Amino acid sequence: MSDTPKYYVTTAIDYVNGVPHLGHAFEKIGADVLIRYKRMTGHDTWLVVGSDEHSQSVEKEAKAKDMTPEAYSDSMVPRFLATTRASSAASSVPAASSTTRSASWSTASARST
Fold first, then answer.
1. How far apart are CA 109 and CA 55, in angstroms?
2. Which residues pair with 48 in a beta bridge?
3. What angle do CA 100, 105, 37 make, to 5 degrees?
4. Which secondary structure element, helix H or strand E, spans residue 45, and what is its range?
5. Domains of the chain: which residue ranges?
6. Are strands 109-112 and 44-48 parallel, antiparallel or unpaired?
7. CA 97 from centre of chain
8. pTM for this structure?
9. Average pLDDT of the chain?
10. How far apart are CA 50 and CA 84, in angstroms?
11. Which CATH homologous superfamily contains domain 6-112?
12. According to the model, what pLDDT value does residue 23 have?
């Protein structure tokens, strides 16, 4: 077992019923700062981010666009990833594919050493 200290950061889940905004970026930047600092001090770091595709607001938006909640959420994931990466949190947020459920924003986590 490794003696390297571990540090985990989990952000709030994003509701993908609308476009991402400054509040989403602000939280991810804060999480990224913590992860970068802990990584510099020798910690094994994990950042977990996600979205909620099961909320009533997502269901409502999906119905309005004649989509399933899953398909609607998958269509919004790239926007949330782009916003996070544009906020300079790119080093801590994993690459994810909106077409692969197991690698989607909904289940994404990043481990860095």
1. 21
2. 10, 109
3. 135
4. strand 44-48
5. 6-112
6. antiparallel
7. 12
8. 0.68
9. 80
10. 12
11. HUPs (3.40.50.620)
12. 87
Task: Give me the residue label for tokens 């989403």.
Answer: 24
Q: The tokens of 71 are what?
A: 């398909």
pLDDT of res. 48: 86
Contact predicate 34/59, CB 8 Å: no
d(CA 24, CA 28) in angstroms, rounded, equals: 6
Query: What 8-state DSSP symbol labels residue 9?
Result: E
The SS3 call for residue 97 is coil
Structure tokens at 107: 């289940």
26-56 tens-digit pLDDT? 888 899 899 999 999 999 999 888 888 889 9
Residues in the chain with pLDDT values less than 70:
1, 88-113
